[in-house]
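cron nightly-structures :: item 1 of 1
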Amino acid sequence: MIRCLISLAGSASQGRVLALALITAISVWLQATAVRANSTNFTVADDISLIEIREPILFSPDRRFFLVVSERGRLDLNRPESSIRFYQARDVQRFISEPRRLSQISPLWTITKSTYKDGPIISDVRWLTTSDEVVFLAKTHAGDNQLFLANVRTKSVTTLTPFHQNVTGFDVRRQDRFAYTVSSPAIWRTQSMGHSAGVDATGRDLGSLIFPEENRDPTASIYDLSELWAVVDGVKIRVSEPGSYRSMPIHTEGQRALSLSPNGRFVATALTVPDVPERWETLFRPAYSSFPYRVRTMHQDPYNLDGRHNVSEYVVVDLLSGKVRPLTGAPLGDTAGWVGITHADWAADGNSVVVSDTFVSPKAPIAPKTTIRPCDAVIDIPSGKASCVDYMKNDVVDTDAEGWRVYDVHFVRGDKNVVAVHYAAHGSINYRRSSQGVWLRDDTTISDTNSALHVFVRQDLNVPPVLIANDTRTGSSRVVWNPNPRLQKLMLGHVSSFQWEDAYRRNWTGGLYTPAKFTTGERLPLVIQTHGFADHAFQPSGSFPTAFAAQELASAGFVVLQVEDCPIRDSPEEGPCQTAGYEGAIKRLSSLGIIDPDRVGIIGFSRTCYYVLHALALGHLKFKAASITDGVGAGYLQYLTSADSGDDGLAHEYNAMIGAPPFGKGLESWFLRSPDFNMDKVKTPLQVVALGRQSTLFMWEPYATLRYLNKPVDLVIINTNEHILSNPAARLISQGKTVDWFRFWLQDYEDPNPAKYGQYKRWEALKVQQEAQEREQISSQSSGSR
């Protein structure tokens, strides 16, 4: 345990600075371990009520204050709850330096909201340059995002936007100078088609045609079209296209990138390109050839309700006139097949903008088939010249491309010659422009986050998160906030990093959850949870709170393996690679005497529903039970019902995953590779969980196929529009059904709760059905052997 924590400290110099923080974290863990002799099992209700600290910790620009955002589920309200805790830096430093006199520290101010059934309630929290004001979004009782400004000194909160507008993006300079985007009223008008005598439906996606009322819920809408609004020196403006009364159409990429100039007159954003130039298709190719989203020469409607995958480019918009000026003359990387995140920032002089994830038109002709990469670029507004700061990594050929993914770019203290780039796993790195105009890494530049006070979250696989403050001058550290002290009274399983090889000698890593009192040789039932593994985080559910319930299952006597995803994507090898990983893990755990290979279950969610279905229909091992929730299955019905949705992105993905479209000779590939065409081979009881009505249609094919084949299958519909669940009642059903389903099939256990009588009566009938099929299979095999 101590060795694991010390390894997190990094280098020797970092280890000295963080030594006391590590000792504190170890102390928290030891206290929890000491009381577990009299503790109780970890349940879904415990999981829901845990307080999660959202990272990063945000300091005010002058470093006098910092804030911490946290989330938890309120079972008593059946709502999520978000909080912003404000601390004064000097109070925390005094708390560190005077441990004998100050036993604890309270926040200077806390804002708490629990106003809607789905979360997060508070999001997108940002400090203003005044250093005593914060802006953030918070959900209204209708589920819309409303923009607020909080003043730390006066401890007051001001509403900046009306309650009936759903804010989708914003940038604020001050209370009377800000820009924001709101969901277009055109989205709500789609509901009115249900009252019409007839509808022209060509080009409309199926979800909007048969479930139009769901677009009234801003958290459920599949559309992203927004309008651009601004408050310029106190005057509110709805920004329109020049010469018309039509609002400026802003889609997802533009909402993320929205950045207001220092004088409040202009915004940098991203707009849909109405007519994609032919040269872009050949010049700006995706990261790898099979990637489903790419630049295609075509006409695009900027007012299309769903423009998430539109080919877009960075622009500057004059808020008063509506005039638009392109910045790079090239598409965004993300809309051209490079997975990136849009962001923009203005230099203090208002003459330069730095943007992330964009191509830059080459200054000279390039050789055929040369791969041009997107970059983080600085554009000089008067001249229009663009220069790349750093180039994006490619998942196919670059090591740790995910770790080098850019999350944020900004000018350091507004200096147009110094740019800070924040990477997913490598923190913030500064780049300085040389006298020759070349951007070079500059480790000597004083960071705009430099301070003697360092505040961070310390956690690992077995240590719950605590907020720690460290005085870098003295090396002293203290726990500022332990959000979940009651975990000390709960019996938690042990989590460790587990490695294995598949049959193709590929290396795999996952998180192995074992019961608190587990000893090797017991051969317990195993449940495989899919869709990623973080080797540094405390994750009691697993990778997501939807469907997964790792610690809950461990408390019930299971071994749980949380498995990373195979890096192969959008290829016919994607499913087989993942299936080989599962099979290799089962073989390895069985050889170690940890699990019973005849009692293995598996859970799929989102993308990994396909992996689970592939393993059941086309794999070599028999699973005792399986569950899939709200995800893709590479099925024929999903393919057809997704027409005209998201630039037909799902169809492009399935074409790549199967190797051909499901038409003509391409159907032969689908018969071989699509799980839904091979459900007759499934011998495992399957639970299919849908999240809302659109999800029910999306998940219908594997359920209906197994019903027609008279195989054991269970359908659960949870009344929610969330994908990653935050609503307490929805989580109770989703994670609770997971525990009940696998305990029933792998442990022959039924919860005595009378409210679950109907559930078990249904499952008992499925078990009779399953046993009859197994007897029939044994009889068939015996006849064949004779």
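cron nightly-structures :: done
The longest helix spans residues 757-785.
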